[in-house]
């Protein structure tokens, strides 16, 4: 009996080669392998159900793109600084097949179907802040750069939670770039250029003026350090470190506080750092040294605010810490790396002052999470703010022997769905060999 394409794919998902790929992406425990096997079978079934008419019209490819977390360099990128981020083992997966319609059709559970006609790659104002804008923007940039584009059908599933600071939107747009590269350009485009294409889509078509950190990390995998000294050509470096052998888990705690109405708080961090640079006749802090700021504190207090000075000093300290964190990882010195993570967290809390908003100073869920984390992990782990701050999430590196205690206590405080037990994933955005 002739097997359908769905049956062939499901048969391959259970084979040893696929299991080995799952171990690299998600972890090696039997529970993890079983849950991922079920997840991918569901993905293939969703594809078959959504695109029944084309089920036997060509090969189906499977893609996976991770989310990411910021690890070092908090609010340093917008002053030409350095950052350290890491890909996580939560991802967006897609089952994909070419179509002859010259359009991209994406079905995703819980979301409206996306259909983008590739004959129209102009910016649509009414599409801004939508996934369709990201798809159209990625395709437009591919075409502008002289690459091939074409239609495809895709079923998509995501385990990257929205609103937890783990870059679900960056993972999605990087995945679109990865799919087009594999289907129409022979997998010839570097992870960094895919990230730049995705960033362009988010900046121009989606309408969000983001930097490159999120996309570069989702695209490259593992730990990634980025130097933004040359904004047009940032230096992206992947750090090979075997986090799986460290004996730690990466915990992300969603404290439940909202990022709503915090745009001015985020803008103030950047603007106040720039005020200090302006006082010296420059545009960005990277143009000056920490020593120059310290030698001119009295002068700066006449030109700008005390908080601006503190935020500038945070910039210099955290910028230097990124270099030190990279060295610690390259030398396999995880204890030193964690010491630096804690330092970064205290700097964000005390100097950058982005662990709670001054609009509601009585609401300090992130500092509560940080304080409880310190009480459990001091001497045995690390903790700090995650991402932009003021609300939302924090991160911690938790030794396996303290996981039960840590996650139980944090769940009691912030709710049963507030804790994410993660790992650092070595692979970036890829096509699986299925």
Helicity range of the residues? 40-55%
* DSSP summary: helix tally: 14
Quote the beta fraction. 15-25%
Give the overall shape, derived from the CA principal axes: globular
Largest sheet: 8 strands, mixed
CATH topology term of the largest domain? Ribosomal Protein S5, domain 2
Number of strands: 12
Tally of distinct domains: 2
CATH architecture type of the largest domain = 2-Layer Sandwich
SSE series: HHHEEEEHEHHHEEEHHHHHHEEHEE
Kindly name the structural category. Answer: alpha+beta
Give unreliable regions as ranges.
none
CATH class assignment of the largest domain: Alpha Beta
What is the gyration radius calculated from CA atoms?
22 Å
Mean pLDDT: 93
Distance between the termini: 22 Å
What does this structure look like?
The chain has 434 residues and is an alpha+beta fold. It folds into 2 domains: 5-240, Ribosomal Protein S5, domain 2, CATH 3.30.230; 248-422, GHMP kinase, C-terminal domain (Alpha-Beta Plaits, 2-Layer Sandwich). It has 14 helices and 12 strands. The chain has helices at 5-13, 16-26, 30-50, 131-144, 168-184, 191-206, 213-220, 263-279, 290-295, 297-303, 306-330, 334-352, 365-377, 403-414, and strands at residues 61-72, 82-98, 103-108, 114-117, 152-158, 223-227, 235-239, 248-254, 382-385, 393-399, 419-422, 430-431. Strands 1, 2, 3, 4, 5, 6, 7 and 12 form an 8-stranded mixed β-sheet that branches. The chain has a 4-stranded antiparallel β-sheet with strand order 9-10-8-11. α1 runs antiparallel to α3 and α5 crosses α6 (191-206). The two termini are 22 Å apart. The model has no long low-confidence stretch (mean pLDDT 93).
């Amino acid at each position: 009996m002739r097997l359908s394409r769905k049956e062939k794919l499901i048969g391959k998902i259970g084979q040893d080669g696929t299991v080995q790929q799952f171990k690299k992406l998600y972890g090696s425990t039997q529970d993890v392998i079983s849950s991922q096997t079920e997840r991918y079978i569901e993905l293939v079934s969703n594809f078959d159900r959504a695109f029944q008419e084309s089920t036997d019209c060509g090969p189906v490819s499977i893609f996976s793109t991770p989310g990411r977390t910021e690890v070092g360099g908090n609010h340093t990128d917008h002053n030409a600084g350095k950052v350290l981020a890491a890909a996580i083992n939560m991802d967006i997966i897609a089952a994909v097949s070419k179509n002859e319609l010259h359009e991209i059709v994406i079905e995703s559970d819980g979301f409206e179907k996306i259909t983008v006609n590739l004959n129209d790659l102009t910016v649509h104002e009414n599409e801004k802040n939508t996934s369709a804008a990201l798809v159209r923007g990625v395709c437009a940039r591919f075409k502008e750069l002289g690459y091939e584009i074409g239609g495809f059908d895709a079923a998509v599933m995501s385990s990257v939670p929205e609103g937890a600071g783990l870059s679900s939107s960056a993972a999605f747009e990087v995945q679109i770039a990865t799919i087009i590269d594999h289907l129409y350009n022979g997998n010839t485009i570097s992870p960094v250029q895919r990230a730049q294409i995705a960033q362009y889509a988010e900046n121009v078509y989606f309408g969000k003026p983001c930097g490159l950190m999120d996309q570069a990390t989702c695209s490259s995998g593992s730990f990634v350090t980025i130097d933004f000294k040359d904004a047009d050509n940032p230096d992206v470096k992947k750090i090979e470190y075997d986090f799986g052998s460290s004996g730690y888990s990466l915990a992300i705690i969603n404290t439940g506080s909202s990022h709503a109405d915090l745009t001015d708080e985020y803008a103030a961090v950047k603007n106040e750092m720039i005020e200090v640079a302006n006082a010296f006749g420059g545009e960005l802090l990277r143009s000056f040294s920490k020593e120059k700021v310290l030698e001119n504190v009295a002068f700066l207090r006449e030109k700008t605010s005390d908080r601006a000075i503190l935020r500038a000093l945070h910039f210099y300290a955290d910028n230097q810490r990124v270099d030190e964190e990279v060295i610690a990882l390259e030398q396999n010195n995880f204890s030193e790396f964690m010491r630096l993570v804690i330092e970064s967290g205290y700097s964000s809390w005390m100097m950058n002052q982005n662990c709670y908003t001054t609009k509601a100073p009585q609401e300090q869920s992130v500092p509560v999470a940080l304080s409880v984390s310190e009480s459990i992990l001091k001497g045995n782990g690390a903790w700090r703010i995650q991402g932009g701050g003021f609300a939302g999430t924090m991160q911690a590196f938790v030794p396996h022997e303290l996981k039960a205690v840590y996650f139980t206590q944090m769940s009691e405080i912030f709710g049963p769905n507030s804790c994410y037990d993660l790992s650092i994933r070595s692979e970036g955005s890829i096509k699986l060999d299925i």
